[in-house]
Amino acid sequence: MEVTKKKLEDAAAENVISLQQADALYEFLIAQSQDVPRFTFTHVLYYLGGLIAIGAMTLFMNLGWEAFGGAGIFFISLLYAGVGLKFSNSFSGNGLTIPAGICATFVVCLTPLTIYGVQQWMGVWPDESAYRDYHRYIKWHWLYMEFGTLAIGALIAWKYKYPFLIMPIAVTLWYMTMDIAAMISGGDYTWELRKLVSLYSGLLLIGLAFWIDIRSHKKADYAFWVYIFGVIAFWGGLSSQHSDSELSKFIYLCINLIMIGVGVMLVRRVFVVFGALGCCGYLGYLASDVFRDSWLFPAALTAMGLGIVYLGVLWQKHEKAITQKSRLFLPVSLRELLEAKS
Predict the structure, then answer these.
(1) Structural domain range at position 7
(2) Within 10 Å of residue 328's Cβ, how many Cβ atoms?
(3) Structural domain contains residue 110
(4) Residue 278 domain-assigned?
(5) Domain boundary among 189, 221, 246
(6) How confident is the model over 234-278, as pLDDT tens digits?
(7) Secondary structure element (H or E) that encloses residue 314, with its range
(8) Which of 120, 124, 256, 314 is the right S-S partner for 275, CB 3.0 to 4.6 Å?
(9) What is the pLDDT of residues 149-184, one digit of tens each?
(10) Considering only CA atoms, which of 45, 168, 158, 153 is closest in space to residue 99?
């Protein structure tokens, strides 16, 4: 539930609290949430600028930088990293946590480029690929850049403790699973293998995110980005699997329904969004293939939808009692996590 100034003023108008208390409470809540990402114009500017700078050094890097040679790329990257750390420390000193975290993340994202420069400089780069291919293709020798990024990312995250720093670490873990699979398979990275690697690496990332969530939910949301890339990898790998079995397709629907349930329980919208997409895809398959000419299918689907709405009404009536009783069977750490998110 979002607490706005209008809601507090409405509470004061109903004599729940005084107008002075409403103003004081609003100022207190604003101060408490200033370091939490919100959909405000200021925060949009922060993240837009940060993502443009990060994208310039990663996704949008062009071949023009190859003209500097390995040594040039290495020293320019170090210069950029120094500037990023300087800005991060300056923002942190002024209490601007979000831009400080974005600048620290920019430094972590420079790590693959820096390592690439060193390898080119020392003449140990194994083929004719360029740095801009790092985010486009799967190759085993990216692993040097990925291990280095994990090391620098872990070091900076340990020192600065900004949640946004987990983003490049999560992306790197995702990349690493694919590149390790390419190395193990001897470079024979077929589409079938890609789907399986995405599926299982996504599950591992989701498990890691859940562990981080339990360990750190009292401090900050460090699990956010790991959940996002874990769900994307898992759902992408799952949805790209091919099967002619109706049972397999129904199991796919059930998995997506479970994802929605998990998302609601953990208050993680990424599970709900992708679970809903999967359910819609399955219903679309039923409508276009299985029940293409059936007049009964839309009627049955309508009845099902209304039944779900009624189920929601029943849940709302008994939610508190069901929640309290069901949480008694959960481990203490998980119970604390769910209570913190409710």
Answers:
(1) 1-33
(2) 7
(3) yes
(4) no
(5) 189
(6) 999 898 888 788 888 899 999 999 998 888 888 888 998 899 888
(7) helix 296-327
(8) 256
(9) 999 999 999 999 899 999 999 999 988 888 887 777
(10) 45
Instruction: Look up residue 29 and give its two tokens.
Output: 């809540």
The verdict on 6 and 125 lying in the same domain is: no
Task: Report which DSSP code applies to 110.
Answer: T
What's this model's pTM, rounded to 2 decimal places? 0.81
Q: With a cut of 70, which residues of the chain have pLDDT below it? A: 1-6, 8-9, 11-12, 14, 22-23, 25-26, 28-40, 186-190, 293, 295, 341-342
How far is 159 from 156, CA to CA, in rounded Å? Answer: 5
Q: Is the dihedral of CA 119, 187, 178, 55 positive or negative?
A: positive
| Start-to-end CA span in the chain (Å) | 10
Residues 45, 144 share a domain: yes
Residue 342: alpha-carbon gap to chain centroid:
20
Total count of domains within the chain: 2
Q: The tokens 């140990």 sit on which residue?
A: 124
Same domain assignment for residues 3 and 86: no
